[in-house]
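Thread: Modeling a multi-component assembly for a lab meeting

Hi all, long-time lurker, first post. My supervisor asked me to bring a structural picture of a complex we are working on to next week's group meeting, and I have zero experience with this. I have the sequence lines for every component (379 residues in total). Could someone generate the structure of the whole assembly? Inputs are pasted exactly as I received them:
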Amino acid sequence: MGFNMDANNTGATPHISQQMFASMAHELKSPLTLISGLSSELQQKNLNIQQYAKYAERIQFSSDRLLGLVDSILQGYRLDQNMLELNLEPICPKVVMEEVAHEMSPHARRQAQLISIKSFKKKQTIIADKHCLHAVLFNLLDNAIKYSNPETTIELEARLRCGVAQLAVKDYGRGITKAELKKLFCEFGKIKRPVPNWASSTGLGLYVARQLTEAMNGRLDLARRKDGSSFLVNLQLSTQLSLF
Amino acid sequence: MKQLINILLVEDDLWLAELYIEALQSNGNYRMHHARDAEEALENLDALKKLNLIILDMFLPGHNGLEFLHEIASYQDTKDIPIILLTTISKMEFGIDDERWKAYGVTKYLYKPDIKPYQLVSVVDELLLNSKMVN
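Re: Modeling a multi-component assembly
Sure thing. I ran the full set together rather than chain by chain. Output:
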């Protein structure tokens, strides 16, 4: 699947496939529906001050999530069109993990979930583009929140594996079946189902996460477990130590 | 004591679910029940039998809304429960006409982005309070 997959496309003009377009629209409609519903309720006169505060906070969080989704869609598009300029440099993964966890924690809380972070030494750095790594972890965490059971902890861990850095996003949910695994990173629309295939909310985020990981010379793997899934972002270690 | 009408909301977005539940409970006519996915909704068939209405999101973790509709239709005690389908996919995008939705057991098809919580309450009132579905 790609942003430029239409068979009739000459390559002269960037062209988004119909299915990709529909998938993006679907992804964006969910938080927009929530924002619209919350705003509508805010206009009701019988809300108390606590309800006002709660609804306003949720509008803020949903808008931030929406911005994150738009950002990762744009990054995926730029990458597909060879327009993405990467700045690969030594960065501390824990800092990015903490940023993303902070942004996503309200969404985890609404599913009664927690996000935990574990990392190797803070001074150890990896070679990555900070903005891209943020988008990769944002998509993986967004997905983990969606598919984890309530009252579970989603674990973010930076660890060393065979000389590379492995950033793991581990969730505890229903897990992914073998059949689903085959479809997971594939093109949209290959399998006929009663529900439009593009409406699967796993597709776009994981596709973008994989493409961005590969652009950083890394690899995105999935480890299936009985009690959930672990998405593994493998990236090169840097020999440079962080000063902070 | 006032007899409350039992409604099950199957919705995986907990904030959206809370918004709909608060709106529907505000007039004091409805007792709301909530399930996060189809599996949870189908866990207790005895409770399902007592429902007056199901409001169903189409895209759920695990089994999707259509699979849930199929399950509900297969039980004698639940096949006649009216169902409101609430989805972010418009009818046109789905390409399924009203007759086929009826055949799936859908009483009313609502396009989520167009429906504010107070409008959902109106639709439910219209369906339950102003009809003979509930005695």
